[in-house]
Amino acid sequence: KRRSWTLFVDYNISELKEHLESQFVAGMNWNNIHVDHIKPKSRFNIIKEGDDEWKRCWSLDNLQALFYFENLEKSDRLGWVRDEPHILSHRICLEIGSEHLLPYTP
């Protein structure tokens, strides 16, 4: 029987939401992001839910908000870096429509 993940972390859902929303960039909302593990889950030696490796994997310090297309691109790579703002802005326009964004001005 699986237990709730909230039993194993030192934050609640409101704190997780606040942590992720503080990372939102122009065009991000809850409908177009993925919660990403900065150090991918596959790089941890998790033996069981709630062990030290699991806790490090799911710590707020290891979670970030990424556009879904960024997360798919990143996959399980370490050291991934977000595109430059003008490239990201162009990609967002293609993905969600330019009416949601302010124009990028360098």
What are the SSEs and their pairings?
Blueprint: H1 13-21, E1 33-37, H2 52-57, E2 63-67, H3 68-74, H4 85-96
Q: Which regions contain 5 or more consecutive residues with pLDDT less than 50?
A: 98-106
Cα separation of the termini: 53 Å
Estimate the global geometry from the Cα principal axes: globular
How are the strands of the largest sheet arranged? 1-2
Tell me about the largest β-sheet.
2 strands, antiparallel
| Average pLDDT level | 81
Rg calculated over all Cα atoms: 16 Å
In what range is the share of β-strand residues?
5-15%
Helix/strand/pairing category = alpha+beta
N to C succession of SSEs:
HEHEHH
Tally the helices: 4
In total, the number of strands is 2
Percent of residues in helices comes to: 25-40%
Characterise the protein shown here:
- The structure is a single chain.
- Mean pLDDT is 81; it is low at 98-106.
- The protein has 4 helices and 2 strands; from the N terminus they run αβαβαα.
- It has 106 residues and is an alpha+beta fold.
- It starts with 12 loop residues before the first helix and ends in a 10-residue tail after the last helix.
- It is globular.
- The chain has a two-stranded antiparallel ribbon with strand order 1-2.
- 9% of the residues are buried.
- The chain is 32% helix and 9% strand.
Question: Which descriptors would you attach to this protein?
Answer:
two-stranded antiparallel ribbon, 106 residues, 4 helices, alpha+beta
